[in-house]
Amino acid sequence: MENQIISEEIRSKEAKKITLIGFVVNAILTGFKIFAGVTGNSSAMIADGVHSLSDFFTDIIVLVGFKITDKPEDESHNYGHGKFETLATAIISFALFFAGYKILISGLNNIYGALFKNILIEKPSIVPLIAAIISIISKELLYRYTKFVGERIKSSAVIANGWHHRSDAFSSVGTLIGIGGAFLLGSKWTILDPIASIIVSIFIFRVAFQILLPSVNELMEASLQKDEILFIENIIKTSPAIVNYHHLRTRRIGNKIAVEVHLIFDRNIMLYEAHEHATTIEKQIKDKFGSNSIITTHLETN
Fold first, then answer.
1. What class does CATH assign to 2-219?
2. Cβ(302)–Cβ(267) under 8 Å?
3. Could you tell me how far CA 254 lies from the centroid of its own chain?
4. Considering the chain, what is the average pLDDT of its residues?
5. CB 279: neighbour CB atoms within 10 A?
6. 226-301, which class in CATH?
7. pLDDT over 50 at 2, yes or no
8. Residue ranges per domain, the chain?
9. Helix/strand number for the chain, H first, E second
10. Which of 96, 269, 286, 296 has its CA at a distance of 20 to 30 angstroms from the CA of residue 133?
C-alpha cells in the first residue's frame, strides 16, 4: 500500500520541499508582477502581485504546520500533533476566502468607477500582459506539482496550498483578459478586467469552501466517511472468532485515523487467542489506512 511505503519522515520532507519550491516561485512572481504593474501602467497587475503575497503566508503556515506535526506524541498530545496540519489547512482556506473577497471588492469598485464616475483606466503596456501569461503558466504548473505531491503523501495542507497556487493563476487569467482587452481593443475595454476578476473570485470562494468543510469536520471530531466505516465493519464481521461488536468510534487526526471498538468473543475463548484475532483486525485496518493509525480494541465475552 502506498500509505505504508511513505514514512512520516519522508512525508514531512516532501511537504517541506514542495512548499519551499512554491515559496521561491512566489517570491520571484510577486516581485515581477509588481514591477510589471508599476512600469506598465497596470493597476490590475499590481493588485495581482499583491494577491501573490498571500501565498507567502500560506507557504509559511504549511512549513510551520509540518514543523509542529513532526513532533512525537507527548504527555500533552497523546495522539500526536496531526491536528495542527488540519488547522493549517483551515487557515489556508480562510486566506483563500480573504483573497477572493479582496478581488471581488476591487472588481466591483472598478466597475462602479467606470460606469458612474467616468474613471478611465490608463491603457497598459505589453509588459504586464507578458507577466500575466508567465504567471498563469508557472502557477498552473506549480499547482499540478503541489497537488500531485499532496495526494501522494496524503496531506490536506499541501493539497490546499496547491489550490491556493491555482487561485493565483485564476486571478492572473482575469488580469490577462482585462489587460489584453485594454491593450488590443482600447481603453474602453478595460472594464473587462474587473468583470473577469469578479468571476474569478467566485471560483476562489468555491475552492476555499471545498477545502474548509473537511477541515472543520475533522476539527469537530467528525467520523470517517461511510465507505471507510463500512470497510472497518466488514473486517470485523469477517473475523471468525468475533461474535459481535459495539461502540465503534472513528475520527481523523491529520493524515492518520483513530479507531476504537469493543469486540465480543465467545466466553470459552482463551485470552491470547482473542488477542491474536484483535491484532489481525488491527493489522488489516492499518494496511488500508496506514501504519501510523491508532487502533484501540476492547476485548469482551458474551
1. mainly alpha
2. yes
3. 12
4. 82
5. 12
6. alpha beta
7. no
8. 2-219, 226-301
9. 9, 3
10. 96
